[in-house]
Design brief:
Elements (H helix, E strand, L loop, with lengths): L1 E9 L5 H17 L3 E17 L2 E13 L1 H13 L3 E10 L4 H20 L31
Antiparallel strand pairs: 1-3, 1-4, 2-3
Amino acid sequence: MHRYETIFVVNPDLSDDETQNVINKFTGIISSTGGVQLKLDDWGRRRLAYKVDKFSQGYYVLVDFAGSPAGLMELERNLKIDDRIIRFLSVKTGINVNVEALQRELAAKAKPVEEVAAVPEGEGGEVEAAPIPEAAPASDQEPDRTPEE
């Protein structure tokens, strides 16, 4: 399996339910072709750098997954066909990846974030500021300089 990242921009005029259905459709294609979704980043509605098909905004979604080249081809074929997709881009980020190791690594990265969020207020969440050392008094004289030869 190879590791891929695909970002696609969904029509911003769709309702939230329709947008979620589009996202579910493409994540379902990844899993139906034998791929494993590692991460899904829903970036939300953002302004486009330039107008695309008369749209100045789009709903951005980033999917990080491991799958076969045939699975990627099927995903891109469906992205091209679907009129609700404004643009998409797929990039290969790894070759012959170990899916189980990637899932453990991503779970380990997510765990510290969850622990920080779970700390109630007043219980170790506050950090004391370190004292600021006093600066040496400024002298009116410049340091001795040797002329450059």
